[in-house]
Amino acid sequence: MIDTPVIEDAAPSTTPSRRLRRRGDGKLAVGAVIVGLFVLAALFAPLITSGHPAEQDLLNRLAPPSRAHVLGTDQLGRDEWTRLVYAIRIDLRVAVLGSLIPAVLGSLIGIAAGLGSKWLDAAIMRTSDIVVSLPLFIFFIALVGLLGPGTGFLFLGPGELPLIIGFTVISWVVYARLLRSEVRRVRSMDYIRAARLGGLPRRRVIAWHIVPNAIGQSIVYFFVDVGLAVVAISTLSFLGVGIPVGTPEWGSMIQSGRGVIQTNWWLIAAPGAAIALIGMGLALIGDGLDDRIKS
């Protein structure tokens, strides 16, 4: 009697790369839902809030949460829920612009450093070392003191432009270093050498082969950077720097509520939870994109 050999499956039903992709898709979905809800709340703020965020009711100050005021009122009788929702517009607008502009600028500089001469590379890297050595919050305080809050610029509100300029001056370094490292790694790969030996123009190799394969980590970091920018904006507003006092902004809301934390703790808990939730959503998007890139 001849034993029949047992034929095992050539490959498992789910490969590690497929599991990694599924995990990344799950993170992306959860993060997109969280961030999407914040964006929708900001867009439709007049429909889901009652009145204007600066509207005061001095006879109803520090009211507890109720049907009329979901999150109560602050020391001036302003509706906390209304201010919390309208603050999304300021925090996300400044955070996105304060991350997008340095992302574009830093990526261009990083590509130039990765593809340029040794002299250009050394000059860019030494400049980035100088920028990294700047103390972040002291630099912002000095910049805001120099420029002042102003009255707004185009679609920006008072105090927003100095913050965006500050983020641009500081944050381009991370993107430049990321792109420089990735470009130098990609350009040394065999398929890039083969493309050059095949006679493809240098510009086409850079635009169609090097940059698309090197930009992934910068896109991942962008979403994380937006979350970090939200925390930085709130911290600066808590310190009284940047966004003028009285403007609906999460950091200034925490600052104004800390004096009544024992009796009206929700005045701090609500904006603090909003900062944590939007940061988690952005981090999940970035982590999910990273898993998809690795898969």
UniProtKB/TrEMBL annotation:
Principal location listed in the UniProt entry: membrane
GO biological process: transmembrane transport
Region (Disordered), start-end ranges: 1-20
Pfam families linked: BPD_transp_1, OppC_N
Topology of this chain in the membrane: Multi-pass membrane protein
Cell compartment(s), UniProt: Cell membrane
Keyword field: Cell membrane, Membrane, Transmembrane, Transmembrane helix, Transport
Residue span, ABC transmembrane type-1 domain: 88-286
InterPro entries: BP-dependent_transpt_permease, MetI-like, MetI-like_sf, OppC_N
Entry GO CC: plasma membrane
Gene3D superfamilies assigned: MetI-like
PROSITE patterns linked: ABC_TM1
TM ranges: 28-48, 94-115, 136-155, 161-179, 219-245, 265-285
Family as reported in the entry's similarity comment: Belongs to the binding-protein-dependent transport system permease family.
Protein name: ABC transporter permease
Protein's organism: Streptomyces dioscori
